[in-house]
Structures are given as structure tokens and as C-alpha cells.
Design brief:
Number of helices: 9
Strand content: under 5%
Number of domains: 2
Shape: flat
Distance between the termini: 29 Å
CATH class of the largest domain: Mainly Alpha
């Protein structure tokens, strides 16, 4: 139990250090990957803690990470749109106002109650985690870990087998299984081929999701109309690539059954 507790504690501390670095980088408007990296670290932390649900120390920290994730999500979506618009030579002015909104939102995130609460919870984490270890709370939760991780994998496998399953839900399931495997490689391991297939499916579904979101956004933000034809063509290609990636992932994961 000590080795398990030490490993989780070390991973949370590593993520805390990375989050500090990301917030420092967000002070520099030229670092286009700072927010993206902050969200990756939030996702890693949530993937580490969510399978340990039921422990107050994990539930509280996971909830704070989720709140910051919800706050920063729309900003990241806008940031990705800005990067896309900057590639469109026929409409470079479309990105200027939106880029200013991104930078303003950076400051709102850095000054937010959500970030402050998460950083405070991280400071309290080591003491609370050790208390949970000493009073025996970790023991029951650890026994539930493997069934929970395997259940998530089985849910993804079943979803992949359903041709009518919603792709938005599949995208979330792919992320969950991929990051769970990274957080707990010894508990619910996936071979290199499966991990690669998960990454490919996540990327393909991400591209599909972005294009779909941009087309929906163009219905209300009319200055984006000049991009619609390009995005519609891109969506068709993205759908084909996503379908291919999901088929490949189903093949790789089905070998686990």
C-alpha cells in the first residue's frame, strides 16, 4: 500500500509543478501552447484521480480540476479557431479580434477563483492523502481500481461495435481509456499498438469535432461565412479519417476480449 500511495502522491506533485509552469507561461502572450499544456495536465490529473472516486481527498481535487477545465475549455476552443483562421490567407483579419479575446481570457483564467481553489487544494493534498493512507481509506478504493479501469475499456469496446453510437460520446470514451492507461499502466495495461490506435482515434475525432463546431459557429458569427466551403470539404475528409481510425481501434481493442 505504501508503494501505491507514494506513486499517486508523486504523480500529483509532478502535475502540480507542471501546472505552475503552465500558468507562468500563460503570462507570455507569445506562448501558443501554454493553455493547451495546462489542460493536458488537468486531464492527466483527472484521469489519475477519477478511478479513485469515493475518497474525499480525490473527489475534492478532481472536482477543482474539472471546474478549471470547464472554465478554460471555451478559451482553448477559441484559440484553436484562431490558429485555423491564421492559416486562411484570404481572411487574416478574422483572427485579430478573436486573438485579443483569447489573451484577455488568459488573464481571466489566471485570476479566477477556479485556479486559486485548485492550487490551494494541491497545497493541501499531501497532508490529506497521507491521512487517508493512515486511516485505511485507500485500501478499499485500491481494490476497486482495476474493475473500474477494465469497465471503461469494455464500455469503449462495446461503443465501437455499435455503428450508431454517438461520436461525441466515443471521443470522450477514447480520451478516458487512453489517459487511464497512461495513469495506471500496471493495472489495466494496453499494448503499444492499442495505445497508438487510441491516439490516432483521438486526433481524428478531435479534427472532426473542431470542424463541426466551426461550421455551427459560422451560423451565428457571420464573418466566418468565407470559410464555410473549406470547412465543409474538410469535414467530409475528417469523417472518413475518423471512421477509419475507429475501425482500426476496434480491431486492436477487440483482441483484449
Amino acid at each position: 500500500m505504501h508503494a501505491f500511495a507514494d506513486r499517486i502522491s508523486a504523480l500529483v506533485l509532478k502535475t502540480q509543478i507542471s501546472l505552475f509552469a503552465c500558468t507562468a507561461r500563460m503570462q507570455t502572450p507569445t506562448d501558443a501552447e501554454a493553455l493547451h499544456d495546462l489542460r493536458i495536465n488537468l486531464r492527466r490529473m483527472r484521469s489519475l484521480l477519477k478511478p479513485l472516486r469515493g475518497l474525499p481527498v480525490c473527489d475534492q481535487l478532481q472536482a477543482h480540476a474539472a471546474e478549471l477545465g470547464r472554465l478554460s475549455g471555451p478559451v482553448r476552443d477559441l484559440e484553436v479557431l484562431v490558429a485555423e483562421l491564421q492559416l486562411k490567407k484570404q481572411a487574416p483579419e478574422l483572427s485579430l479580434q478573436r486573438q485579443r479575446r483569447v489573451l484577455q481570457s488568459y488573464q481571466q483564467i489566471l485570476q479566477s477563483d477556479q485556479l486559486s481553489a485548485l492550487l490551494h487544494a494541491l497545497d493541501e493534498w499531501p497532508r490529506q492523502w497521507r491521512l487517508a493512507e493512515r486511516d485505511g481509506s485507500l485500501r478499499a478504493t485500491k481494490h476497486k481500481l482495476e474493475p473500474r479501469l477494465l469497465k471503461a475499456q469494455l464500455r469503449l469496446i462495446n461503443a465501437l461495435a455499435d455503428p450508431l453510437h454517438d461520436w461525441h460520446d466515443l471521443r470522450l470514451l477514447v480520451k478516458r481509456v487512453r489517459y487511464n492507461a497512461q495513469a495506471y499502466p500496471d493495472v489495466a495495461p494496453l499494448n503499444a499498438a492499442s495505445q497508438k490506435a487510441l491516439a490516432q482515434a483521438q486526433s481524428a475525432l478531435g479534427n472532426w469535432h473542431d470542424l463541426l463546431q466551426w461550421l455551427m459557429l459560422s451560423e451565428t458569427e457571420t464573418d466566418l461565412v468565407v470559410c464555410i466551403s473549406i470547412w465543409q470539404a474538410g469535414l467530409q475528409r475528417a469523417e472518413a479519417k475518423a471512421a477509419e481510425a475507429l475501425a482500426g481501434l476496434r480491431l486492436k481493442l477487440s483482441k483484449k476480449i
